[in-house]
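We emphasize that the prediction below concerns an isolated chain of 348 residues; any contacts that depend on oligomerization or on bound cofactors are therefore not represented. The input was used exactly as deposited, without trimming of termini.
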Amino acid sequence: MSDLHLLIQTADQRLSILHASGFHTRPGRFADLPDAVRMSNAAECDLHGSEAFTVERYEQEWRIPGLDLETDTRVVLTANGDIVGLVEVWDIHNPPVHPWIWVRVDPEYQNQGIGTALMEWAFARARATEARLEPGVRFAPRAGTIVGHQASTTLLENLGMIPIRYGWSMRIEMDSPPPPPIWPQAIQLQKYQHPQQAEAVYRAQDEAFQDHWGYVAGDFDEEFSHWQYKFFNIHELDPELWFLAMDGDEIAGVAIGYPYADDDPDLGWVEILAVRKPWRKKGLGLALLQQTFSAYYERGMRKVGLGVDSQNLSGATRLYQKAGMHVHREHVTYEIELRPGVELEQRG
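Result of the prediction step, given as a token string:
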């Protein structure tokens, strides 16, 4: 038996407490998707008031290269076979210094130890990820929740996780056309051409985010592959919502929008707003944002949202507020250090 499967077997022993309570646990399966989505949406409604998943979207996430349902997921089922809990350990990036733990429990089954057992399984499973790191590298899995959601906050903190970073979901509600963008000198707006510009857009975005908190340098081919899967498989590609700010042949900045947000079909979503360092502090970020607002407004959409690190040092939060956006919801990231060492992540 491989070291990975020995670690998984040890992790599964942590779920035996649920078996004694009449629950059954096993890896997730694609056949579980309808029930898993039902349960996850119930948990999402409890967490922030709206559903966020479809079977089609969830299937694409479970098919992402690098995720193995057998080793990276566990579901909790009742005696009747209903899914009431789910955990996923996301360690698809290399180096995997901060695996992401995603756990949901049916609100009707809270306070029965399901969340605790699943998180403890995830911590044990994460030890398999640690083995992929060089000696001396810090290793700390992470999870997140909504600020003010007492049940999930208590769960994470009781397990020894500590809050390390806060983020905002921001929105604008437009009752009139947004102001037209004012482009810096020499900048020309260009629509994205798919697929021939995909690599150039990824390189520009990656460079722009290198000084942002959370950035970890990885293998180009692997990271580009993950990026393509996210934007062209998991989410619906709409080239009309991809805007490139060009300075000659160079991409100075980019804005990437989704036709709608996961949790609100009436909300346009700006997934990426990135400006490369040589073109910052010239109004380019604001121009790209206003261009995106205008595109949604022309489609009849009056709400637009995005997510941002609220402690961002580049001034992004001030930019979004200047553009008329306000904080809609606050998120918090937790982590638990399983191995001290040298931190590879950008701490800006």
